[in-house]
Structures are given as C-alpha cells and as structure tokens.
Amino acid sequence: MRLWRRSPFLLPRDRARDGPAHPDTGRLDPPRHEKHGGFRVRSCIPIVAAALLALLPALARAADEPPAAERLPSEPLVVDLAAEGRQVGKPGGEIVTLVAKPRDIRYISAYAYTRLVGYDAKLTLRPDLLARFEAQDDKVFTFTLRAGHRWSDGQPFTAEDFRYWWEDVALNKDLSPSGPPEFMLVDGQPPRFEVLDPLHVRYTWEKPNPRFLPELASPRDPFIYRPAHYLKQFHARYAPKKDLDAAVKQQKVKGWAALHNRLDGMFEQTNPDLPTLQPWRVTNTAPAARFVFVRNPYYHRVDSQGQQLPYLDRVLMDVAAGGLFAAKANAGEADLLFRGLTMEDIPILREGEQAKGYRTHLWPTARGSEIALYPNLTTADPVWRKLNRDVRFRRALSLAIDRRTLNNALLFGLGTEGNDTVVEGSPLYKPEYRTLYAGYDPDEASRLLDAVGLTQRNGAGIRLLPDGRELEIVVETDGESLLLTDGLTLIAEFWREVGVKLFVKPQDRTVLRNRAYAGLTTMAAAQGLDLAIPTAEMPPDELAPVHQDSYAWPKWGQFAETKGREGEPCDLPEAKALIDLNAQWMETGDAALQARIWGEMLQNRAENQWVIGTVSGALQPVVAKTRLLNLPDKATYSWKPTAMIGVYRMDEFFWGPDRKEAAR
C-alpha cells in the first residue's frame, strides 16, 4: 500500500471507488471540510495539506521502490528534453484513456514505443533499450545491452533473454510451428546467433538483411527477447514434467506449449505476471471495465536532471463503446485520446474544450489515401478477373472520380487529391506519383471503357459486361468508417455518369478479409498506404504483391507468404516487376540503390493504378487535457512508422501545475 494512502487528510484518485477526479490534476483535491460527529469542522491546515499533496509522487515512489541507484542501468538513456523542445517534467499522477474492447489494451505497446532500436520524431533510428548497435553491411548486427538493466520484477536483462527467445521459442517447433518470423530469414535461411558475453549478442546473415532494424522499430514490436527467468518455468526443456502437468491442468490448456504461449503475452498484455521492459506494466486481466497499468520501477530512461521516466505513475484504460469516444472526451472523461476519433468528431470535441479543460490537437495523418479502392486482380470470377487486370479499366475508374468534390465534402477542402502514394513529407515523394491518372476527366474515362469493349448499355445507361450482366461493382468494406461509406456514396454518383454502377457492401472486417483471401471479392474499399512517410531505409514490401492482407492481390500475396503452398503465383508482368524490385531492395544495404528501387516501385504503382486513391491528409484529433504537457501541438500521425503517438514519447508526458499552483 502506498504511504500517501494511509494519510487521513488526503484522498487517492480512484475513480472506480470515489468517482471522477479533478479533470486536470489526475488527483482528487483534499477536502476543505469533513463531517465529524454531526458537525462540520476544518480538516487540516490547507498549507500543510497542499505541501503534502505536492510530495505525493515522491513519497509514493519511495515507499514502493528500491533506491534509484539500484533501479537504473549503470548507463541509462539520458533524454535531452531541451533539445526536443520539451520541458523537464514533474513525476507522479495518472491519465485515463479509452479502448473499445479489452483486446485493444495491447496498443499500449505502440503508444509507449519502447524498442531495442526505435525511430525518433525525425524518423532516425536510435538505440533505445540497447546501449549501442553496430551493423556491418546489413549482414552482421552486434547489440550491446545496458549493464545493470533490469526487468520490471528486478531481474537482470541479459543476453540470455535473447538466446532464450531464439533457441527455445523461435526455433522450437512446439511453440513456433511455422519457424522464426519472416524478417529473420534471408533467402529462407536464419542467421547465425551468438552470445558474445552477458551484454553482447550478434546476428550474422550470409546476405544483407536491411529490414532487420526497421522491423525492430515497427509499431508492433516483434520482441526478439523474452524474460527467460520467468518463462523457463513453463518450458518443457527446463521445468519438471510434474510441475508442467499441474500448471497445464490448472490453466485448462492442451499442453505445455499452449500454456507457454498463453503466458507469453508480450504484445497482447494478457499476463500481469509477465515481466516487461516497457514504461508501464498491466496489473489486471479481462473481463474488466478498467485496465490499470503501473510504472515500471526499473525503466531505463532518465531526464537531464536525473529523474527516472516515465513521469506518469499509472495509465488507466477504460472500456467504452467506440461510438461514444467523442462524447466521453467532450464530457472530460479522458485525459488523452486519439485512437477511435476521426475528423467527423472535431465539432463535438471543440464544444467541450473550455468547460472540461482539454484541447483538441489536429495532427495531419500520413496515410496514402483516406479512401482507396482495391480491384481484386485475383478474384475467382473469370469475367471480373479479366476486367480488373486491364489497366485501361483501372485508369478509367480513377479518372471518373471527382476528387475535388470528395475533398470538399469529406475533408473540408483541406485534403490532398490524387493517388494512393507517399505523402509530401517523405524524402521519396514526387508530385507525379500523386497526380498520374488522378485528374477528373469523365470523357477520357468513357473512352477507355469503350476501348476495353464495354460499349453495350441497358435502358438505365449502365454498361454491360461481356456475359450480359450489368457492370455493377460490389465494393466491400469493413463498415467501420463513416468517412469511407460517405465517400463511396459520392463515388457511386461519379461512376454512374460513365455507366458504372457501384453497390456498397459493409461487413465485419474478419469476414471481408476471409472473402478476399478466397477470391470472392470483386473490389474492396479501405484506407490506403500505411507507410506513407517512408525513408529509403524502410522496406517497400507494402507496394508489392507479397502479403495476402492486400485486397488488390490476396492470392498472389498468399503464394509469396506460404512459399507456394497456397494461393497463386503472380502472372502479370507489371506486378511481377514489383516483386523483383522488392527482392532487390531486400538484398542491398546501399541507401542510394534503395531509394532508386522505391522510386521505380512508386512510379509503377501510379502508372498501373493497382490501388485507386482519392484524397489524403485527413486531420487526426488528439485530445489531451490542457495541463498534460510535452504532447506536441502538431505532429504527423500514422500507424507506421510513428506508431500513432509512439515516437513522440508518452513516457515524457506529465501534469503541469494548475493556475493556483502556478500563481504560488
């Protein structure tokens, strides 16, 4: 129990028990009067109470933790906040954010963004958990750990944790039936892994593996290390069989591997007992209406004054219906909120700012297109497959879209019209990637459709397919975005002008993906490029048909991912060129060559209209209490590579003084 909770004069902030706390401070204010024996009497001297209140963070930490010298690595990561344009913070307090379902608590891994190596706000790779890293020709990678670095339970973080993951998890057929993750393989071959000493490990490939470091910095951490001291008690190689059998029976799972995988929830945040290196660790499991994350006392980062990060003691994630996020933010029920908010929420968010003491920051999104159309080139319907593969058809559909009207109707005219490609902030950007075949020209669109052979129409003016069916494109979506469905309604009007009928079919995202994988979709609509602000050193595989989760060519991607066991081989020369270019990028560490490959792939994407983009540049609302400091007023928002707010270092956020404290 924390020391300050024993005080008769001070109340903890525990909303589940005491109701809402002060909307800004993150604490309940001490009462000025309390009832006693039927009379009102003054509690304690206000000045003393205020002084004690100011000391709460330090007292709380001191009560629960060993001395700082025992908690920190001998070489902690020192953050130069002044160089970042930030303030040195004040430790203590907590924040509340919202999640739509319990499983979404896993995104704290992206928010907190603690990685072996990670991007800074300028998208430069820096060591984070690692003290240093060395890369020789992108073939040999040597990692240096921080001496004295500890897991959240106080146990040492050493090379053994890397060895355990590689030898006992990734290479164990029971735990990893499909073998190591793909980014650990080059031409299907794993690296040679070496433990040099307790603080040094090395990975060596015969050929370059340029995606290794970017993958370690990705929004979803691959966690190529594990708390070996904890997980060994659930591993058949180390634990006595009788103990494992008892644990398997207690957890009601099929065997030791299922037990190990259940308890090894590094990303999912499902096991409060699992040690972590993140700034906060989860303390409870589902079912729950609130998930409580408490600070890791052994976190490796400090500010320039030697104060250990994170500044915030707790992060509280409350489960709420996604449709109520904006209303709850408007009511002041969240201290920090972004995921689940959209541009349509801005008016209601603006309404509550002054009364509830928050501000709605508007960050430009780095996404290739807010609405992207994906003709399925591997659809099972032979008529639609032939049509979708004809570049004239895809260009016609693109030219028939009035993007200016879409921009004005959906993004208040603030968006950028054009193809689904990288945004202007990327060093790889060229204007022609955005504009090629992306103007509004219905006459040219009609000419191209005629050239394809779609000259016959019915009485309503809708073109007919070669087999006599109406040219009705069923566009399937996950139905989660109002902006997407509103945009498709407008696109339906534009396409009708050139004789094309559009029917929107919303459905569950899992159902949509399974239909696409099976070749049952004709066209899907979703957001565009995730990695829309890349540098040449970031892998371009999202542009190539090598992943089944792209709605444009799921069967080709399936074939690539399964090494030919499932799906279909790519048989379109222009698309095969993307596979070859992607393979070339994967085989080189030459930055100039990587940039040239990116350019060729982006040009190919624009010319072939594999994905039909519309408008980009939506603004992402980021709601934060006005006294929550060190959050950028404006920054780029994306899943990849910024991990939403991750690269802006949530562990550096802190509560500033209220006006009365500032005046004193």
TrEMBL record:
Biased composition (Basic and acidic residues): 14-32
Subcellular location: Periplasm
Transmembrane spans: none
Domain Solute-binding protein family, residue spans: 125-523
One Pfam family linked to the record: SBP_bac_5
Domain of life per record: Bacteria
Single GO MF annotation: peptide transmembrane transporter activity
InterPro entries attached to this UniProt entry: SBP_5 (IPR039424), SBP_5_dom (IPR000914)
Gene3D superfamilies for the chain: Dipeptide-binding Protein, Domain 3 (3.10.105.10), Periplasmic binding protein-like II (3.40.190.10)
Region (Disordered): 14-35
Coiled coil (UniProt feature): none
A single GO BP: peptide transport
Similarity comment: family membership: Belongs to the bacterial solute-binding protein 5 family.
Protein name per Swiss-Prot or TrEMBL: Extracellular solute-binding protein family 5
Provenance organism: Methylobacterium nodulans (strain LMG 21967 / CNCM I-2342 / ORS 2060)
